[in-house]
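Internal ticket - ligand job 333, dinuclear copper ion:
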Amino acid sequence: MAAEPAYVQDAEEGLRLFPAQASSFAREMDLLLLALTAITLLVLLSITALILYYVWRYREGSTAPRPEKRPRIGGYRLELSWSLATLMIFLVLFVWSTSLYLRMYGEPDMPAMTINVIAKQWMWKTYHPSGAREINELHVPSGEAIKLRLISQDVIHSFSVPAFRIKRDVLPGRYNTAWFKAVTPGVYSLFCAEYCGTEHSHMRGRVVVLAADDYADWLTGEAIEATPAERGRELFRSAGCTGCHSDQAAVRAPTLGGLYGRTVPLADGSTVIADEVYLRDSMLLPRKQIVAGYQPLMPSYEGRLTEAEVLSLIAYLKHLGDDTEADRPEGAP
Ligand code: CUA
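stdout (C-alpha cells):
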C-alpha cells in the first residue's frame, strides 16, 4: 500500500464545534444557517427588550401615563406592512433552503462517480466503481463530484459527514442518494446520525479526501479482486439466474441484455423505466411488477441475496448486451 500523504497522517480527528467547510455546499449551508439564526435572534431580542422595557415602565408606582380611555394606535397600513415584510423574509428563506436541499439531494449537476454505501449494525461498507472496497473508510478524490447510493442491511442509519454538511437517512429496502464535491484534501469524520442500537455511537468512520495524484496512488495500492460487474457475472451464474434468463433456458423469462434504462411494458398496462430500483425490486419482489406477456414465475430472492450481491448483479445487468462495458464504470461490490 502506498504511504499516506502528510495531510492524512497528521490529520486530527475529533469533534469540532464548527466543522471545516470541506465541500462545495458547505459555505452556502453555513450562510443559510447564519441568516436563519440572525433573523431569529433579531426577533427574539427585540421582543424581549420590549417586554423588559414595558415591565419597567409600567411597574407599580411609576408615573407613566395610564389614560382611562385606551387610545387607538396602529391601523391597517402598519399591520399589513409588517405582516407582508415578515412573510417576504420567510418566503425568501423557504425558497433558498428548498433550492439548496434540492440541489444537494437531487442528481449531481456534473458528471459524478457513484460509490455504493451499505450500512449495517454497526459499520459502513463502501464500494468503489473500480472494485475497491472499504470498511468505515471512504477515500475520494478532491474536486470531483461523488454520488452515493445508500442502503441499509438492517435498521435505519444515517450517513452524516459534518464537514460536507450532508446527512442522509440510510433505509433498509430502498436506495437513497446524496452527492458532494469535496474541495479540501484532508480527513473528515463520518458519523451514524440515527440511533440504531447498542453500538450506534461507535458506528463511525472517516472520509479521506485526497488530491488527484494521491488518489491515483491510493487506488493502485488497493487489492482489487474483481470489478463490480465481474462479481455480478459470477453471481448471475452461481445464484441460478441463467437457469431461466438465457437463450437456452427451458423456462420463458424476459431477456436481460440491454434492459437497463429501457422502458418496460408491464402486465397491468403501465410502463416502468428499468433503473436500479426496478432491477432490485425484480429480484427481491418479483410479483410487484410483472412484465407484459410473461407469467409470474420468478421466485423471490429476498433473504437469499445480500445487499452487496444485489448491487453486484445490478452492475452486471447494466452492462449486459452492450459492447462498451469498459466505458461505463459503476460502483457496486
Ligand atoms: Cu447506525 Cu446509528
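Auto-summary: The chain has seven helices and twelve strands. Helices lie at 6-9, 26-57, 76-105, 212-221, 228-238, 276-284, 307-319.
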